Amino acid sequence: MSEITLPSVTTAKGDLWVFGYGSLMWRPGFDFEERVPARLVGEHRALCVYSFVHRGTPEKPGLVLGLDRGGACRGIAFRVAEKNRTEVVAYLRAREQVTSVYREVMRSVWLENDARQRVSALTYVVDRGHAQYAGRLSLAEQHRHVVQGHGQSGANRDYVTATVKAIEAEGFRDTQLHQLALMLHGDAHSLHAPAPVEDRENR
């Protein structure tokens, strides 16, 4: 569970495992040899990062996921071939570390396959000392930020919806994310609902 350094993650021998718990689950963006459901213990998935770039702006921040301390998290472990290690790490740093809100670390994850082995995987944990760390927000606060959020990668609501679909595809639920998705679904329906008929008799 140690912090990794530039030389160790890029020059280590063997294949590289990467743990995805948010958008990496449904849009990894890199080549991999194997994709396995996995569990990480000691941190949990949370909408605890204000997004200033991908899903919001400094003026109207969105919210994206981070791994925060405590609990456990189910996600996806991707096995990257050794020959692609340097390229994939560079890609992940460009994608995840735009504002350095995450700490790049190695964590033990348990693969949920027949072998059930434990591997060390590269993942991104929120930096609690960073200005973009949102902490524990109420569902109403999360909803407000997600509704307003729109950045270089698109609408914040699309990020939440896609992540929930990816979680469901793996056969489990994330209670708070699912509650938020239901609220966003309700918003969409209300936006397309027919206008109320004017009651002329009671004018």
UniProtKB/TrEMBL annotation:
UniProt key word Transferase: yes
Keywords, alphabetical: Lyase, Transferase
Top-level EC class: lyase
Parts of the chain that traverse the membrane: none
Pfam families: ChaC (PF04752)
GO biological process, alphabetically ordered: glutathione catabolic process
Record bears the keyword Lyase: yes
Annotated GO CC locations: cytoplasm
A GO molecular-function annotation: transferase activity
Coiled coil: none
InterPro entries attached to this UniProt entry: ChaC, GGCT-like, GGCT-like_sf
UniProt EC number: 4.3.2.7
Superkingdom: Bacteria
Protein's UniProt name: glutathione-specific gamma-glutamylcyclotransferase
